[in-house]
Amino acid sequence: MKLRSKAAALLLLALAALLLALLSLRAGRAEPPAPPARPASAPQRHPAPVPARWPAPGALPVASPGVRRRRPQRPRPRAGRRGAARLEKLARRPGEPRSFQAVLPPELWIHLAVVACGNRLEETLVMLKSAVLFSHRKIQFHIFTEDSLKPEFDKQLRQWPDSYTKKFEHRIYPITFSVGNPQEWKKLFKPCAAQRLFLPVILKDVDSLLYVDTDVLFLRPVDDIWKLLRLFNSTQLAAMAPEHEIPKIGWYSRFARHPFYGSAGVNSGVMLMNLTRIRSTQFKNSMIPTGLAWEDMLYPLYQKYKNAITWGDQDLLNIIFYFNPECLYVFPCQWNYRPDHCMYGSNCREAEHEGVSVLHGNRGVYHDDKQPTFKALYEAIRDFPFQDNLFQSMYYPLQLKFLETVHTLCGRIPQVFLKQIEKTMKRAYEKHVIIHVGPNQMH
């Protein structure tokens, strides 16, 4: 009996030991050892998946001890039209408009002024069209014109597509002269051209302004010439390009009967102005020993030199900056490229390297056949349908037209005219295709 009881006890002990061994083995499988620590410089990798444990019926799933639960990642928006819309929605704050382009407050808009009288309606609209086609920032147009042209300006600008009208606002002003004889001012040089002299007085709420003649075309964003305001030093308040690059064959150096700026004078067809500084400056002059405010100086200056000036308001500006050279910033000829820069041979080095940025078709070259290169650019922008592809409907036809102009000196350097407009179109195309369409949808 004693032997049997001892054998039963030993068997129970063996069974207990075996049960403990099985329990410990199961616990070891349920709790895997922690992975060895990696050095800080080692690349991060995703952790190995932990074997799943099914919970008992009715129990809530519980993470294994030592295992940190990871929140599932949200799917990233796909590139392309839908993806861009989702990115825009994520980046937009409540109440913000549906656009990637930030809405600038009015004080950060570009201000562009033009004076149009007589038969300059179409020319002015083509100039404004060239500004809107390539601009990035919103533009405020200040249009000074005769009463008879106001309804047509307003009608034509409102007919442009919404995708372009949202890029600008326009105001139309009457022709007014605050000092002197209005009829005398109006007949100075070309109809209404002298109006530009009074812009600092009329636009009192505008800090800075870009004035251009009606026969100007922008071949790159207006934003780029607007940035030249940042280059002004503490005394400069206006910027213009030289009238000629070679003084010995320039008009002012050979024929002027009045003082003019520098060695060749300046051309006022493209004029960048800090109006705030102009209004607050006392200008040196040849009439009295003390300085005069801008408005107070204009009519006495005209009275003194009216029998000596040929180019009207441009001559008056040259006289003003002759006596105040520290007030003028001179920008390169590529920002005011005229037939004189190529009709006698290429003489604008900046345009040869960078391309024409702003084209100035003076001498009436848009409307005759004397300079077909200028006329081809004007007609290409005039006839371009707003919603068409820039390359297909403007750039390629323009290249073909240029082939017909190689018999002229200006036509022999087509790269000078095409370089900037090609860059501008490429940027616009890439922005539209990559951002708005998406790289995954390009074929």
From TrEMBL:
Q: Which domain of life is it from?
A: Eukaryota
Please list the residue ranges that the record marks as compositionally biased, kind Basic residues: 67-84
Write down the CDD domains for this protein, in alphabetical order. GT8_like_2 (cd06430)
Q: Which GO terms describe its biological process?
A: protein O-linked glycosylation via N-acetyl-galactosamine
The primary location reported for this protein is membrane
Q: Which GO terms describe its molecular function?
A: UDP-D-xylose:beta-D-glucoside alpha-1,3-D-xylosyltransferase activity; UDP-xylosyltransferase activity
Gene3D superfamilies found in the cross-reference section: Spore Coat Polysaccharide Biosynthesis Protein SpsA, Chain A
**For the region Disordered, what residue ranges are annotated?**
30-93
Q: Which reaction does it catalyse?
A: 3-O-(beta-D-glucosyl)-L-seryl-[EGF-like domain protein] + UDP-alpha-D-xylose = 3-O-[alpha-D-xylosyl-(1->3)-beta-D-glucosyl]-L-seryl-[EGF-like domain protein] + UDP + H(+)
User: What UniProt keywords apply to this chain's record, in alphabetical order?
Assistant: Glycoprotein, Glycosyltransferase, Membrane, Signal, Signal-anchor, Transferase, Transmembrane, Transmembrane helix
* Membrane topology annotation: Single-pass type II membrane protein
Single GO cellular component term: membrane
Subcellular compartments: Membrane
Tell me its EC number(s), please. Answer: 2.4.2.42
Signal peptide bounds = 1-30
**InterPro entries from the xrefs?**
Glyco_trans_8, Glycosyltransferase_8, Nucleotide-diphossugar_trans
Q: What does this protein do?
A: Glycosyltransferase which elongates the O-linked glucose attached to EGF-like repeats in the extracellular domain of Notch proteins by catalyzing the addition of xylose.
Protein family (similarity comment): Belongs to the glycosyltransferase 8 family.
The protein's name: UDP-D-xylose:beta-D-glucoside alpha-1,3-D-xylosyltransferase
Q: What is the scientific name of the source organism?
A: Macaca mulatta
Q: Which gene encodes it?
A: GXYLT2
